């Protein structure tokens, strides 16, 4: 719950402003749940139209409790669902207009857990090319470039699996830091090597005649994928000398 100082006697404007917060105060509030958030990040989200704080005559930002709540929702959807900012903005705007909309379910949950919709109907976790472009907020030329580097690959029928949206969102976010798709080829190659290692372990189980053993192979694949992903993150963290969120 947010606590703001109550205003004393004064003008109506002063009373109205008493519940507003500076960007520094907002940062402190958000850091309880999002330790990695920065003032630059808050300003960036403002520039992307995710929040519109008031401005004082001298130009200082003043955030309401509603602004802080909205920022929290934006950061939560980025963290838990890997959704592009464009998709998040459109979703929140629709909610605030009172429209009955659902959060897009083509992303990925945190810690490698898939969303319930994908778990119940994995064959339906497909997205067309036009839908992928819209969800990622990119142009056709960008998608073609990503495909040329193998970062995003369509299935045999020309559509994409749900994970393609996650990849697209992450490639877009990395691009904001100047990391181009061609720089990510080594990341793609490393992922393929890790996948090959996992496949070596589970391949005998997949070839087994017993259906239960083959089903066990899928569960083992997910388990090993999760472990290798955690190891990769830990090694990267050690190499950089930082603690990742």
Would you give an account of this structure?
- This protein has 245 residues and is mainly alpha-helical.
- The protein folds into 3 domains: 18-81, Multidrug-efflux Transporter Regulator, Chain: A, Domain 2 (Orthogonal Bundle), CATH 1.10.1660; 105-179, Multidrug-efflux Transporter Regulator, Chain: A, Domain 2 (Orthogonal Bundle), CATH 1.10.1660; 181-245, no CATH class.
- 57% of the residues lie in helices and 3% in strands.
- The chain is built from 11 helices and 4 strands.
- It has helices at 12-17, 23-30, 39-47, 65-81, 85-96, 116-120, 129-136, 140-148, 163-175, 185-206, 211-240, and strands at 54-55, 61-62, 126-127, 160-161.
- It has a two-stranded antiparallel ribbon with strand order 1-2. A two-stranded antiparallel sheet has the order 3-4.
- Strand 1 (54-55) and strand 2 (61-62) form a beta hairpin.
- Helix 4 packs across helix 5 and helix 10 (185-206) runs antiparallel to helix 11.
- Mean pLDDT is 78; it is low at 1-16 and 106-124.
List the helices and strands and how they pair.
Layout: H1 12-17, H2 23-30, H3 39-47, E1 54-55, E2 61-62, H4 65-81, H5 85-96, H6 116-120, E3 126-127, H7 129-136, H8 140-148, E4 160-161, H9 163-175, H10 185-206, H11 211-240
Antiparallel strand pairs: 1-2, 3-4
What keyword list fits this structure?
245 residues; Multidrug-efflux Transporter Regulator, Chain: A, Domain 2; two-stranded antiparallel ribbon; 11 helices; 4 strands
